[in-house]
Amino acid sequence: MPVASVGEIELDYERSGSGPPLLLIMGMSGTALHWGEPFLQALRRDFDVIAYDHRGVGASSRLEGPITIVQMADDALGLLDALGIDSAHIVGISMGGMVAQELALAHPERVLTLTLGCTYCGGSGSSLMTPELARRLRDARRSGDREQAVRASWEANISPALVDDADVYAAYSEVSRQRAVAVPVILAQIDAIDAHDTSARLAELAMPTLVIHGTADQVLPVENGHLVASLIPGSRLEIFDGVGHLFFWERPDRSAELVREHATVAA
To answer: Where do the structural domains in the chain lie, given as residue ranges?
Structure first.
């Protein structure tokens, strides 16, 4: 993957497809590979797709100390600047959706449309994963057993309907193996998520906004999707019944179709 200079750091990114620019902002412990090839391939038919790795991930610069969601939003903006992109369609999932919120609030003129998937805004009515799930994931990460950590992540992020699909899990395991994220980076991202709260400001967003969430999401329960959509004037809420956190793995074609349909409102 090429690397772009963004201020004092570098971010690795992949750019593919053709059409208007679409910036994909990944979530906690994820990499540019975690979008999954089926979803990316479906997007490339209609967009110039840009996927990148946050600080501390892949070939991007090392993460030095703590980081905030606002700093990650500045990184995303800096990548657009480095690539000479004045405005783009923005898709952020999970922690990436929090980054996308801050980017859209600070620089609305750079956002053609906003898609917020399986994400969280903080404030009253928001909820994170249960303590039991957080403990299970933490113990798996600290076990030193890479396969145990990947499997625990998979089981947390996917719905019961797909969790035992060997072929899909093999694809997920392979991208996780190719580009591992260090535990200290994940812990710094968790701290950033814990401090995130845009709930009182989301009413400022005026760009076309799509919110997507699955009812079987264990990582960020579906009430977060309902709340985010209720706080953004004129937003559209799309609920995937029985789908987990990684909705774009479970419904890649439909997810890409929703992004494509949403982009037409700004055409």
So the answer is: 3-266
Q: What is the pTM of this model?
A: 0.97
Alpha carbon separation from 266 to 16, 113, 148, 222, 229 (Å, rounded): 21, 7, 44, 27, 19
Give residue 25's identity as a one-letter amino acid code.
I
CATH no. of 3-266: 3.40.50.1820
Q: Nearest CA to 221 among 133, 109, 90, 96? A: 133
Res. 2: pLDDT tops 80: yes
Which run of H or E residues covers position 96?
A: helix 95-106
Mean pLDDT of the chain: 96
Q: Letter for the amino acid at 254?
A: R
Buried b (16+ CB within 10 A) or exposed e, 109-135: ebbbbbbbbbbbbbeeebebbeeeeee
CB atoms within 10 A of CB 260: 17
* Cα 75 from chain centroid (whole Å): 14
Chain-centroid distance of CA 145 in Å reads 25
CB–CB of 228/205 below 8 Å? Answer: no
| Tokens standing for residue 11 | 């971010």
Q: Look at strands 111-117 and 9-17 and give their pairing.
A: unpaired
